[in-house]
Amino acid sequence: MPGDSDFFEAEKALIKEARELIKGEKCDKETLLKSFTILTEQFDKLIRDVEKIIKISDGQQEYLHRIQGDLKKEIEDRIRAEEKLKYFAAIDSLTGCYNRGMGLAFLDNELNAIKRNKSFFSICYIDVNGLKYVNDNFGHFEGDELLVMVCRFIKQVIRSNDILCRLGGDEFLIIFSNSKKENVEKAIERINFDINSENEKKLKPYSVSFSYGIFQVDYDNNLSIDEIIQRADAKMYENKQKCKKLD
């Protein structure tokens, strides 16, 4: 492709010739007419060439806009796909609460936070009672409904900054940020009150309940995550045995 300086070389030469003819003292009509005709034809060709270039440029711009739109949509689709992957990687698909891995990550963050701030938090280990009985007698779908129901009652009481996660099966963990054991006891009492009110309606062929264990974690403790969960689990087992004796 010729450079920009050569693109209008023929036209420039004709204009130069026309100017020389105009400046000349004697210019016959025939010479002027011939030069003007050639110049007009070249100018007409130039206009057509420019129009072609403009059309090509417009087409390229349209193509670039289309490509840009397609690329933007692809990026947005990928972002949404990544967000879905992150969501499903963090959320228990049945109950909608956090899964075990994410729950342990939150617990680790909470441990680091209280050590920095010299603060405290509490956890509550929950075991839903009677899941095997419900599964065996009313089917696994009803067993799933039991777990979902318990989670719903818990979410209605705990704060937005508290974390509920499913450890697996019928076991759940609640992380109560900046809360003492006494405050967690009150929250669990409210949850149990709501569940008992639902049981009184006799909408299910079984009673909904759970056993729980609360453990307060202070900043000066040297317990690992596993040890903290084990402490709360042991408290939960004590509560479960106590409830069995009352039955």
UniProtKB/TrEMBL annotation:
Keywords linked to the UniProt accession: Hydrolase
Residue stretches making up the GGDEF domain: 119-247
Record carries keyword Hydrolase: yes
GO BP terms in the entry: cell adhesion involved in single-species biofilm formation; negative regulation of bacterial-type flagellum-dependent cell motility
Pfam family, one: GGDEF
One function term, GO molecular function aspect: diguanylate cyclase activity
Domain of life of the native organism: Bacteria
Enzyme Commission no: 3.1.4.52
Annotated Gene Ontology cellular component terms: plasma membrane
SMART domains in the record: GGDEF (SM00267)
Database matches in SUPFAM superfamilies: Nucleotide cyclase
PROSITE patterns registered for this protein in UniProt: GGDEF
Enzyme class name: hydrolase
Protein name: Cyclic di-GMP phosphodiesterase Gmr
Gene: gmr_4
